[in-house]
Structures are given as C-alpha cells and as structure tokens.
Amino acid sequence: SGTLFIVATPIGNLEDMTYRAVRTLAQVDLIAAEDTRHSLKLLNHFNISKPLTSYFDHNQQFKGERILNALRQGKSVALISDAGTPCVSDPGYHLVRDAVAEGISVVPIPGCSAAITAISVSGLPSDTFTFAGFPPSRQGKRRGFLVKVTDLPGTLVLYEAPHRLEETLQDILHVLGERQVVVARELTKIYEECIRGTVSEVMASVAKGKVRGEVVILIAPGEPVQEETEPLDKTLHRLLYEEQLS
Ligand code: SAM
User: Fold this and answer.
1) Residue 167: which of 143, 195, 151 has the closest Cα?
2) Is the CB of 142 inside a 6 Å radius of any atom of ligand 1?
3) Whole-prediction pTM
4) Pocket lining: 84 vs ligand 1, CB cutoff 6 Å
5) Structure ipTM
6) Sign of the C-alpha dihedral, residues 191, 197, 203, 208?
7) Which atom of ligand 1 lies closest to the CA of 112?
8) What is the pLDDT of residue 59?
9) Taking a C-beta distance cutoff of 8 angstroms, is the pair 3, 105 a contact?
10) Is 27 in contact with 75 (CB distance < 8 Å)?
C-alpha cells in the first residue's frame, strides 16, 4: 500500500514551510486538504499542482474511505490542514487511526504548530505543559473544563477564537484566579504580539484595542501549596544515618 504523509504547513508566514514539506507535496499522488480553496493558495505559491480532495470534520467518514482506497491501491497521499500541523485541533485523527489499523505507513513531515510556537516565546514554565485545545464555547461547560485543569502541573496552553477571548479570560479569572497569562496573537504574521501579565492586566489591554486575529492563551501554573518542610540538612541526616541504623 501507499504512504500517508501528515504534512505541517505554516501558521501565517509562508517562509515557515519546510523544504521537505514542499518536496513531499510535489511528489505525492493526491493531496487531501481541510479546505481545498484555502490550500490552493499555498500550493500555487510553491508551484505545486496536484489532484486535491477535501477532508474536513463533516465528511471525515466518507472522504476518509476514498483516501484509504487510494492508499490501498498503492498511491501516496499527503494530508494538510488550513494551518499548522494536521490532527492538532484539526481534522486528521480518524484518517490516521484507520490507516494505522490497516498497517498503512504514516509518515510525519513536521513543521509549525501554534501551540509549540506560542510556548517557545511565552516565558512561562515550559518543561511541563498541557495542551488542552479549544475550551468549550458555552460558559457553563467552559468553567467546568477549567475546573478540571486547575491542578495540572505546568503551563496550560489553550486555543481560542478571537471573539471569545474576553469571556474566556473572564472565566480563567473566575475559576483559576489571578494567574500570569500570555496571549500570543497572530504568530509569525505582521501583527504578531505577546500580551503578558496577570489575567486582569491582559483583560484590560485586550479590552482597549480590539484583539483581532488568531490567539493562543497560555496560563502559568498556580502557586504550589506550601507544605511543612524539614530543613535540608535534617533530611540528609535522616536519609544517610537514621534510616540506615533502624
Ligand atoms: N493545526 C493548527 C496548529 O498546529 O497550530 C491549529 C488549528 S486550530 C483550528 C486554529 C487555532 O490555532 C486558532 O484558533 C488559534 O488558537 C491557533 N492559531 C493558529 N494559527 C495561529 C497564529 N498564527 N497565531 C496564534 N494562534 C494561532
């Protein structure tokens, strides 16, 4: 059978396309795109002309079968989404799962993802972070979602639609309290900007100028609960001597 390539594309700046992504898209038999009209612009920019088929949430079942058939016939297929890495808050998961189940080889062509791009410049703790995707759009569910992630270690990374940014920040303040946050907007584009501060401070600057464009919200971990701790020299003494003796 053929190979399914999962190809990352830029999240704004076309120079973030990798050489390997261009070569792969130019070599496959078929490109499956979330939105073919949107992706045509990218493909034209790189002079790539290939058969295109759409693959998005609503037709996953149907088009998935067509793409799998092409793979079964030995054709190579590349999956791209509108921006960034397919399957990361984007269609692709069902196709990859089904291809894996059939023993079809799935090859990543890595590149941009807004979540990783945002964490890299956030200045927030980044060894451990949780990417939680889009919060629910209704307030009740969104608050419930935030309650569940309150005690996760490390920084929390969320995607959000620009018109819901203010209400989501309000809920973050309500549920998680006054934490440090970063709103990374329009990454890799002309109006790229990181708005940093406490939730209230960021809300104030968001309210001032209308925040347009795409945003990633990053929330710093909460303060660890202070526990009674014994002094370090005492701990060492206990571990080295007392526990050995007993
Ligand atoms: N698959 C993409 C990725 O790997 O980043 C994510 C797709 S998701 C449908 C779109 C969301 O990603 C936006 O609502 C926004 O939260 C975030 N996003 C995408 N591009 C961005 C950019 N240039 N700057 C900031 N956030 C971006």
Assistant:
1) 143
2) no
3) 0.90
4) yes
5) 0.99
6) negative
7) 4
8) 58
9) yes
10) no
| Alpha-helical regions (H) of 105-192 | 114-122, 139-149, 165-176
C-alpha 23/C-alpha 46 separation (Å) is: 10
- Tokens 């190809």 found at: 7
Structural tokens at position 82? 């509108």
Hey, what amino acid is at 187?
L
Taking Cα atoms as reference points, which of 64, 136, 132 lies closest to residue 94?
A: 64
Verify whether ligand 1 is closer than 6 Å to residue 64 (CB atom). Answer: no
Q: Report the relative pairing of strands 52-54 and 77-80 from DSSP bridges.
A: unpaired
Entry field: residues in the chain? 246
Determine what percent of the chain is predicted with pLDDT higher than 90: 79
Q: Ligand 1 centre from 162 Cα, in Å? A: 11
pLDDT tens digits, one per residue of 61-75: 667 889 999 999 999
Q: How many CB atoms lie within 10 A of CB 177?
A: 12
Both tokens of 47, joined, read 């002079």
Using most ligand atoms within 8 A of CB, pick from 215, 218, 219 the residue to mutate for ligand 1. Answer: 215
The residue with tokens 């590349």 is: 78
- Does residue 166 have its Cβ closer than 6 Å to ligand 1? no
Tokens representing 158 are: 């969320």
Structure letter (DSSP) for residue 239: I
> What distances in angstroms separate CA 36 from CA 130, 189, 222, one per listed residue?
31, 22, 42
